């Protein structure tokens, strides 16, 4: 599914260099979006659609088109071709599994700009984009570490791929930075969007004494479980506090609008070039949602201080020394993993209770 096998990214290690090819200026932008889920998921697809709406406010952007719940694979090529036939000159394909279809369609339509989310294949008219979500994940871990009373924190996780593992590790490192006694318990759902499965996983974590939940899922089911059981919860993708007004603390969220607006301007101005974008909090592609009143002022101040340090480049969530679950040093003192190492992360850090199932 979307974002899904970023193992391949590790081998290719993303070279962030621009292609020399540039598109001609586009007087008007007619953008099309391919979504893997429903806009109403309140999560991944909903966040992308907020970005689409923000981009659409530019005066040279025509009303855009979005097609939701598009299966990955061959079916996505048919849908992308449909956008081409209808005259779209900027097409966003927002799931990892659309990668090959995007490249194939782009080969036959060199006058159209394609942007693929989370992939690693580019072409003269195809770029990729993703965000360093591990940065706000780390910050949300600080909040969880400060708010837990049982020192048992639950994490409802989708698939055991590097992206999700990286997020769990960053979150745990944030937790441990302020609360060395706390542990993060992981349950895998093997789905991005299945509210029933996600709710069962969240409840199973609450059943074993966790009092703060975090999630890498697209539905608000984890939020609702925490609300029903009197626990705290860290959201994901978008600000989901309406689903858990008493339980919500904060959430690592996407700000796709900033990037979509930038890319539309580049296509309009004729300055767009193919590149692989992996941006973070400094570029405002990822951020931490506003705190709920439940988060004490001193915790808010600490997290804000750490957020400013990340943006300034003086704090990296994965700066060593870091040990894995076995006690082996995986990042030496004074060292920071390369982007390739981060993109291929396949181990849990100390403090995580769970296994990386294959």
TrEMBL record:
Pfam families: Bmp
Occurrences of domain ABC transporter substrate-binding protein PnrA-like (ranges): 30-308
GO cellular component: plasma membrane
Keyword Signal: yes
Entry keywords, A to Z: Signal
Signal peptide annotation: 1-24
Matching InterPro entries: ABC-Purine-Binding (IPR052910), PnrA-like (IPR003760)
Coiled-coil ranges (or none): none
Protein name in the entry: Nucleoside-binding protein
Organism in which the protein naturally occurs: Desulfuromusa kysingii
């Amino acid at each position: 599914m979307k974002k899904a096998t970023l193992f391949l990214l590790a081998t290719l290690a993303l070279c962030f260099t621009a292609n020399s090819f540039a598109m001609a200026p586009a007087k008007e932008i007619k953008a099309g979006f391919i979504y893997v889920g429903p806009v109403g998921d309140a999560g991944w697809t909903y966040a992308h659609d907020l970005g689409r709406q923000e981009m659409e406010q530019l005066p040279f952007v025509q009303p855009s088109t979005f097609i939701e719940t598009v299966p990955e694979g061959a079916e996505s090529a048919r849908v992308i071709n449909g956008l081409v036939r209808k005259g779209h000159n900027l097409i966003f394909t927002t799931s990892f599994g659309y990668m090959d279809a995007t490249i194939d369609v782009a080969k036959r339509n060199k006058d159209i700009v394609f942007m693929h989310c989370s992939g690693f294949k580019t072409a003269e008219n195809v770029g990729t984009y993703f965000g360093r979500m591990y940065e706000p994940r780390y910050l949300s871990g600080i909040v969880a570490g400060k708010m837990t009373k049982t020192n048992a924190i639950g994490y409802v996780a989708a698939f055991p791929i590097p992206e999700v593992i990286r997020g769990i590790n960053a979150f745990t490192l944030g937790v441990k930075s302020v609360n060395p006694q706390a542990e993060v318990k992981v349950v895998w759902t093997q789905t991005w969007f299945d509210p029933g499965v996600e709710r069962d996983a969240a409840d199973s974590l609450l059943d074993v004494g966790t009092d703060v939940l975090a999630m890498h899922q697209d539905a608000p089911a984890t939020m609702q479980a925490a609300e029903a059981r009197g626990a705290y919860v860290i959201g994901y993708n978008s600000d989901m506090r309406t689903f858990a007004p008493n339980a919500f603390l904060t959430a690592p969220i996407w700000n796709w609008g900033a990037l979509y607006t930038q890319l539309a301007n580049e296509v309009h101005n004729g300055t767009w070039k193919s590149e692989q974008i992996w941006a973070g909090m400094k570029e405002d592609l990822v951020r931490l949602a506003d705190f709920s009143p439940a988060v004490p002022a001193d915790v808010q101040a600490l997290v804000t201080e750490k957020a400013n340090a990340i943006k300034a480049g003086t704090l990296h969530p994965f700066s060593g020394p870091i040990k894995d679950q076995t006690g082996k040093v995986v990042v030496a003192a004074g060292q920071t993993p390369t982007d390739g190492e981060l993109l291929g992360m396949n181990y849990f850090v100390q403090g995580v209770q769970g296994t990386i199932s294959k």
